[in-house]
Amino acid sequence: RAELLLHFQPLVEVGSGQIIAAEALLRWQHPQLGVVAPADFIPLAEETGLIVPIGEWVLRQACEQHRAWRASGHGRLRMMVNLSARQLRDEGFVDMVSRVLADTAMPAGQLTLELTESMLMEGSGCTVEVLERLRTLGVRLAIDDFGTGYSSLAYLKRFPIDELKIDRLFIRDIERNSGDAAIAEAIVKLGHSLGLRVVAEGVESAAQFAILSAHGCDFAQGYHFGRPVAAAAFPLPD
Ligand code: G
Ligand code: MN
After folding, report:
1. Is the C-beta atom of 55 inside 6 A of ligand 1?
2. Contact yes or no for 10/28 (Cβ under 8 A)
3. Contact 56, 111 (CB under 8 A)
4. pTM of the model
5. Does ligand 1 have an atom closer than 6 angstroms to the CB of 144?
6. Cα separation of 229 and 238, whole Å?
7. Which H or E run contains 7?
8. What's 33-100 look like in SS3?
9. How far is the CA of 68 from the centre of ligand 1 (A)?
10. pLDDT at 121
11. How big is the CA angle at 125 (ends 122 and 127), to the nearest 5 degrees?
12. What's the pLDDT band for 215 if we cut at 50, 70, 90?
């Protein structure tokens, strides 16, 4: 019923403070219930398998939005799209991504697909193959909510990953909690020594940003820079 829509949240480059990417986030605007939170309908969509067509719609919609931004002179912006475990297991998944990229003329290198640690762990051997095929298409891969899943470090070398997104759990109290600060710093170092770029999620204050900047974190995302908003309200860089 055309009740789904995407919101976009900015990611900034820590060094320059410039907005360099948008993460697409799914929303359901229900006529009676109002905005239904993703946590309340994604699990059901996963269970029923509906996440497969929904996921395709999300990717296509995000790529179409990127095309519109490219047309208005924002060709350098990158787009981040979240994947679900079920999509990754779907036989036609890589072909679907390839088709959407072609249909929307999306420059593959500007698309990052986000996966969680648990998706990598629960997937069997075929996951590596699927990720390798996605990589061959030219898209980038990020691990979302890093540090809160199975936290098996073995997959960091086994899977073709480009970016780590530090879960906001470690950012929230980073000013007061020396344990969180140590973990965030260690993730940045770990990522860099593996040749990965590191994103901090859930940055809500200038003080948190300053700490992450001192640790050499590459990118940051959170309410301090912008909430998820409709495309028309997205703070496009100059
Ligand atoms: O799992 P993932 O990191 O993709 O989830 C993104 C979710 O986190 C979005 O629903 C978004 O609204 C929320 N979010 C984004 N930035 C912040 C933030 O700075 N603080 C908090 N508490 N939530 C955030
Ligand atoms: Mn995400």
Report:
1. no
2. no
3. no
4. 0.95
5. yes
6. 18
7. strand 4-13
8. CEEECHHHHHHHHHHHCCHHHHHHHHHHHHHHHHHHHHHCCCCCCEEEEECCHHHHHCCCHHHHHHHH
9. 24
10. 82
11. 65
12. very high
